[in-house]
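User: I've been trying to design a sequence by hand for this structure and keep getting stuck. Would you show me what you'd pick, starting by listing the structure so we're on the same page?

Assistant: Good idea, let's start from the same input. This is the structure you sent:
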């Protein structure tokens, strides 16, 4: 009879494997190598095998740790919708699972017993000497074996500890996902933060604006309409919607809301859905000539332009496009500057120690000198 190495990709399997790994100890290890009648050659081959698996497992474990640091706080994922939560993690730890199965397979006694028809085949995790049944205690322990046996034991202990830690992290993440899915307050925080991150993505939103010709309903927006409440929508869609679909949904919803609030698509791109901020920026451009804005040769003053950009408080990657927005809407009497002159002045101010906040405050004072309204940007 051959024991099965198939693992079901579910949370219960994770727990079962972790439990099996926790059974590893010196006496069970000795029982495992005795059960298979390992020679010195076999032990040395196993040492090299474990070293190879350890290297792959380390890479996978580090990748999983990095993944875990951001994944829970992302509303959308790139995983296919058909993936169950546990399956998603199993697919990220293939090398780890392969190593564990190989180790348990190599320490499972051979059996010639034929199973009756319809009987489920036992797994190596259920029959390996590392985790199954009682074992005979060797009173001399590893000291009665060649040094290579001690080396293999030490290597295996490190390998299985790494594996247990990796699987435990997967299990904690599964629990965290479910906990967040039941916490509406935290779900909303993750959802709105994910939306804000997308809206702050300079290149992605700009590319989207350049390609969209109309604002069709997305599948996600249709599901949002059908949901009985926002809470129900968030619980259902958390970690169940692909990033590409979520991105389209966020951008289209922002543009639709901006249009309803009287914002142009460009203003929505620059200032998200902050209609009050757009109103203040429009006012600043309208009253621009009333401030000290004249530079040389009848051109605008580059210092004041930089102050204006910082006062608008858009992401730095959007400042060039913001200046173009200024140029498109400025109706004053001074000549416009080329962007390179503005960019040069921006760099010089930074080198002189003028902070973004300091520049913004300077423009705010200029605004207050020509209008009674105090802007909060």
């Amino acid at each position: 009879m051959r024991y099965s190495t198939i693992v079901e990709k579910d949370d219960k399997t994770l727990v079962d494997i972790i439990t099996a790994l926790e059974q590893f100890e010196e006496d069970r290890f000795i029982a495992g190598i005795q059960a298979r009648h390992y020679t010195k050659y076999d032990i040395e081959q196993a040492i090299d095998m474990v070293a190879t698996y350890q290297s792959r497992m380390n890479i996978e474990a580090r990748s999983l740790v990095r993944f875990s640091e951001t994944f829970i706080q992302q509303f959308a994922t790139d995983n296919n919708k058909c993936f169950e939560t546990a399956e998603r993690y199993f697919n990220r730890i293939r090398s780890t699972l392969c190593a564990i199965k190989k180790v348990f397979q190599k320490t499972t006694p051979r059996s010639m017993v034929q199973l009756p028809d319809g009987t489920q085949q036992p797994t190596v995790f259920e029959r390996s000497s590392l985790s199954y049944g009682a074992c005979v205690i060797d009173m001399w322990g590893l000291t009665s074996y060649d040094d290579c046996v001690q080396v293999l034991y030490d290597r295996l202990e490190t390998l299985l500890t790494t594996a247990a830690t990796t699987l435990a992290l997967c299990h904690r993440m599964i629990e965290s996902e479910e906990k967040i899915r039941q916490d509406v307050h935290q779900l909303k925080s993750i959802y709105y933060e994910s939306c804000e991150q997308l809206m702050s993505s300079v290149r992605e939103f700009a590319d989207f604006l350049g390609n969209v010709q109309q604002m069709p309903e997305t599948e996600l927006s249709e599901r949002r309409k059908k949901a009985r409440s926002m809470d129900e929508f968030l619980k259902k869609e958390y970690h169940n919607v692909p990033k590409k679909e979520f991105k389209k949904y966020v951008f289209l919803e922002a543009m639709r809301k901006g249009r309803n609030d009287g914002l142009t698509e460009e203003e929505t791109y620059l200032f998200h859905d902050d209609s009050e901020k757009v109103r203040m920026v429009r006012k600043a451009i309208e009253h621009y000539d009333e401030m000290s804005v004249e530079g040389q040769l009848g051109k605008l003053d580059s210092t004041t332009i930089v102050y204006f950009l910082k006062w608008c408080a858009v992401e730095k990657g959007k400042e060039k496009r913001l200046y173009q927005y200024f140029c498109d809407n400025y109706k004053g009497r001074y000549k416009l500057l080329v962007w390179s002159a503005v960019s040069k002045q921006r760099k010089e101010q930074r080198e002189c120690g003028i902070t973004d906040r300091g520049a913004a405050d300077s423009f705010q004072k200029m605004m207050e000198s020509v209008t009674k309204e105090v802007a909060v940007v």
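That's my pick for every position. To get oriented when you compare it with your attempt: Residues 85 and 174 are 7 Å apart (CA to CA). Residues 147-181 form the longest helix (35 residues).
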